[in-house]
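Journal club side-thread
Mid-discussion, someone asked how the predicted structure for our own chain would compare to the paper's figures. Pasting it here so we can look after the session.
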Amino acid sequence: MLYLHSSSSNDKNRLKIIEINMRKISREMDSQWALDIMRKAPYITVSFTRPDDTAYGVPLSLASKDDNVWYFHCAPDGDKLDAIAVNPEVCLSAVTKCQPTVGPKDGTFTLQYRSAIAFGKAEIVTDNDEKILALRLISQRFLPKHMDAFDAAVERSLHRTAVVKITLLAPPTGKRKQYDKNGDEMKYGRME
């Protein structure tokens, strides 16, 4: 899988291509499957690079406008925004159906999972209409039964809420380890 990536912290406008190879290709799933995992995950871990070049990953509640644009909200200052100001490139990781298990045929200790990874560019949303749209998407995803209180909540807190937009640089990749009812691992994208 090829991704565009900034070549250095000194030159944010220069891009280079980096190659990401999946070691267990038999577990790779397509990008539509990976997007479905991202939509279903209760949170997505977003990894940043802080201004001092240390890593910072935090699970966040993201919602998508489409397959390419994802949003989260946060306080108007802090580690996430400081990191984005210096290095807007982020990595998103989502996992669902994660379950430790014993391999049905060989007795090995293992883990069944469905996961997705994507790389994107983060930016702080400054337009209030887009901020409200993003907050609406997040609220509809996580609190759909409480949308009647949305407008009042936005009116009270929009001025003290930051919204971050992540635009994916390429389609996400998916990976799965799952056994069928006969105890065989479902490889090469095989579905149930």
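Post-session note: The first strand starts at residue 2 and ends at 8.
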